[in-house]
Amino acid sequence: xxxxxxxxxxxxxxxxxxxxxxxxxxxxxxxxxxxxxxxxxxxxxxxxxxxxxxxxxxxxxxxxxxxxxxxxxxxxxxxxxxxxxxxxxxxxxxxxxxxxxxxxxxxxxxxxxxxxxxxxxxxxxxxxxxxxxxxxxxxxxxxxxxxxxxxxxxxxx
Length: 157
Hints:
This protein has helices spanning about 1-10, 25-30, 35-50, 105-110, 115-120, 130-155; strands spanning about 20, 55-60, 65, 75-85, 90-95, 100-105. It has about 160 residues and is α+β, with helices and mostly antiparallel strands. It is globular.
């Protein structure tokens, strides 16, 4: 109901992305880096909103910057946030660095084409196809290393 009232009084059709969760804590718990992370979260929200107006809410999942468990290629600390539509459907997540961010659409986000819209807007995206390709490449490297080790063992015998 509140959203319906807000829409009636807006001068534009697009609503600002709502930031919820631990947003207020980001500046406090990250020490000297807090202001940098706050700016990065604001900039990420602006770019995501500009790229795809279907995102209505960014839910910060803990204000403390941390190393990613989801993205083994990430070397910097990140702030993790969920991305939801106005109806409350979570369509992915975002890892926000001090400089830049990466989007991770979930299955619903991929089915609804969020990954394609974000890529077309020039945003950094990692979807299930990217993860499958990375795992295959990792397995290929591992198989090559294992094969080399087996050949060395055979030659030593």
